[in-house]
Amino acid sequence: xxxxxxxxxxYGAAVADVREFNINxxxxxxxxxxxxxxxxxxxxxxGEKGFVFHGLSFGKRIAERGALGLQxxxxxxxxxxxxxxxxxxxxxxxxxxxxxxxxxxxxSLGLAYRLADEASLGIGARVRRExxxxxxxxxxxxxxxxxPVVTIDESEVTSWNLDAGLLIDVGEAVRLGxxxxxxxxxxxxxxxxxxxxxxxxxxxxxxxxxxxxxxxxVLLTAELTTELTGALGVEWNxxxxxxxxxxxYLSEEERPxxxxxxxxxxxxxxxxxxxxxxxxFFDQTLRSGSGQAAAFDPAAIRxxxxxxxxxxxxxLSLKAMFGRVREQLAVIESVELxxxxxxxxxxxxxxxxxGRAVIANVxxxxxxxxxxxxxxxxxxxxxxxxxxxxxxxxxxEVPLTAVFNERLDAxxxxxxxxxxxxxxxxxxEQADDRYQTRLLIQGRNAWDGDVLTLRYFVTPDHPEVIRYxxxxxxxxxxxxxxxxxxxxxxxxxxxxxxxxxxxxxYVHDPRQSTDYVQYPAETLGLRGGDxxxxxxxxxxxxxxxxxxxxxxxVLPPDRPEEGHIYLLFDTGLAPQFGASIxxxxxxxxxxxxxxxxxxxxxxxxxxxxxxxxxxxxxxxAEEYFRDVEMALGLVxxxxxxxxxx
Amino acid sequence: MWKWHSDSSRDGSGLxxxxxxxxxxxxxxxxxxxLAAAAALRAEITxxxxxxxxxxxxxxxxxxxxVARGDVLKPNDSIRTGRESQAVIRVQGEEGTRTIxxxxxxxxxxxxxxELTQEELxxxxxxxxxxxxxxDWKTDELGVPGAAVVHGSDRxxxxxxxxxxxxxxxxxxxxxxxxxDNNLYSTCILRGMExxxxxxxxxxxxxDRMMVADALARTGLKGEALAEYGAVSEMEGLSDRExxxxxxxxxxLRR
Lengths: 645, 255
Fold this sequence. Notes:
The complex is a heterodimer.
Chain A: H1 3-8, E1 34-42, E2 52-62, E3 66-72, E4 77-87, E5 95-116, E6 119-142, E7 145-170, E8 174-187, H2 193-197, E9 205-215, E10 218-225, E11 229-239, E12 242-251, E13 258-269, E14 272-281, E15 313-322, E16 330-337, E17 355-361, E18 367-375, E19 383-384, E20 388-390, E21 395-400, E22 415-425, E23 433-441, H3 451-454, H4 463-475, H5 477-483, H6 488-503, E24 505-506, H7 520-526, E25 528-529, H8 531-544, E26 549-554, E27 564-570, E28 589-592, E29 598-604, H9 612-630, H10 633-636, E30 639-644
Parallel strand pairs in A: 24-25
Antiparallel strand pairs in A: 1-2, 1-15, 2-3, 3-5, 4-5, 5-6, 6-7, 7-8, 8-9, 9-10, 10-11, 11-12, 12-13, 13-14, 14-15, 16-17, 17-21, 18-19, 18-20, 18-22, 22-23, 26-27, 26-30, 27-29, 28-29
Chain B: E1 9-10, E2 16-17, H1 20-41, E3 44-51, E4 54-57, E5 65-66, E6 72-73, E7 78-81, E8 86-93, E9 96-102, E10 106-109, H2 118-129, H3 166-181, H4 185-198, H5 206-218, H6 222-233, H7 240-254
Antiparallel strand pairs in B: 1-2, 3-6, 3-8, 4-5, 4-7, 7-10, 8-9
Helix pairs in contact in B: 3-4, 4-5, 5-6, 6-7
């Protein structure tokens, strides 16, 4: 028996794979491809020690609608030993006999076929062995010498018992099961008279079962047989692959009628599922492993694993699923992308979602699902989302991330590419579903207009930028040596700006400056750019020599067309030394640096680059004082300062 | 279609959902505030009286030039009076006309002659504290380009920079007191704190620190005022009279 079956007690409508397909062979169609299970049990109250190997099962989907299951279950076996009975006939010699009865079902086979989406049919055959071994000890006296004679009488019969099952889905949350057991029974031989008296019943039994899912995490089951036995069960999926199970076994013949209860747990991870259950019988009279021979009644043994002589048991099982996916477990219901990809800030999508997919679990089991996003040429491999657990019927929004490769930087103009979103539900080896969408990729110089992403154009590590700033400092090393000390940072920034001003020109960008930004190496190469280009370039140059910088983004709400960006840089001077660089405190502001120390920062407006550093500083200061100090733009939110760290 | 935007709300998955209604409301508020600020910028400032050494500095320029009666100044100008000098300016804005009398030895930033709302003041004070905090969601997700090399000589060498002139700082503090006396408490607070930052030695001036604390109390920022009084009470060299004065104001504030 499988731990899930033991834990839930009622399993007829819950069979969904190779586990306990004997209960209802139609459930085999629930397999994905290959199924393998192994079970073992312990009977702590019977006096037997150690775990007993119970059995192995293999299952395989056949074509699209069929399934086959095989079970080898040496542990489905019970043996009764009647102790020696000494008979002393009048005038005769005493004889002694013992009797051993063995019942087992070592093999079973199941075949299932999906008749329609809502109905499947299965047949099963169980090989049952019944063996009687009688050992007769007789004392023979010959020539006054008495010696024992042992005679062993064996009788065995192997029978094939045929079952049939049907599973019908009634709506999305209810499944009915119908099973006919022992519909046909074929013996391979004729047992002797003694064994005939101990044969197990093989009369046909009908069984009706139901499984209902009142909530996506809860499965309730119930069953009733024509012999007035039944069971009730529940399975609660806690998430993260964990499930709790409980069940009660019922029989009209037992006292109490609810004669046993079970509880169990299950844990699914990737393609593996572990189960453990404990089965307890309330009346232990016949279940301790020994009893009066007169109390033995083989007719009461309807199933070998659950008979009036079965003991409490701890059942453990392992299930593994392999192979290709033939049945869709998860589907992508929709995909939404967040907008175009800007190559300059595309690395953000390795952390921030580029979009999201709504994925639904369309199977009847909990799944671990991963979504992946891929754009051919511009990604080396699909980027997978973190796994999410989905209960049957559950849907979830999965953020999609993307790691683009360097080929994205070669895009010079707006491009449209196909993007593939796939979803993979464990334990599948291939995608369950695929969704193709269109992805808009901007040219490498495109900018979304958000100052927060402008910093991704800042490349202080670029060789051209480093070379430029190094050359300028080298050319002015004499004048810089004079400045020295605390003013060194300020002096270096001024020297670089003036050199920058001497070589570059401000040009209005005809392509709308808010949409197109040059990388610093391009600005240096082209010797010019618009406000954004020059600001980004100067920030990169300052950053390359270790000077902290920030963008000032101004977007007056009543004059959005006057939106503008300039920069601040850190002089490294403490506030009390402001007089070293300016007599008018309106020309600078005090801000905390990255270490939390207050230092003097200077605003620089690069659009007046041609007029030199002093004028660029003055204009920057005028703008800053007007927008931030007087109009309170920073407080009101239409001025933003973005530090380039 | 959802859109990334700085004025959007963030949902649990880390994605941004554009909140149109919120954006429109915010835009309207910003426009209203902008119009109010524009009104302040349009204020007309006239020198009514100028006795002795009275000078003005325009915008971000460095030089001071003498002013005379009738001169018109701009809101981004500064005005300064010398020893035994005096000036009276008239500020005519949409809020009405205000006449400010400037005693000798003060510097007043004309942009300070305005009233800020308590919310604006609180935002300004808060921003002083969080100036370098990450500004938005994009700052904490990925490393951004950073400096790779530091060129040049040892920065510890070289001359000591020129320290701000304390006398000038004192003139600014005197200007802050003019603001206080004219009930312009918000700008008095901001100016006072700015001066303490740029002239750390003046931060030990008990009367000036008390002035800022009093201004905070009068603007209704009780917590900030108590913090400032607390800081004053811990200053070294506090006289018994000053200590008693601080205690009385704290007591009064807590009542």
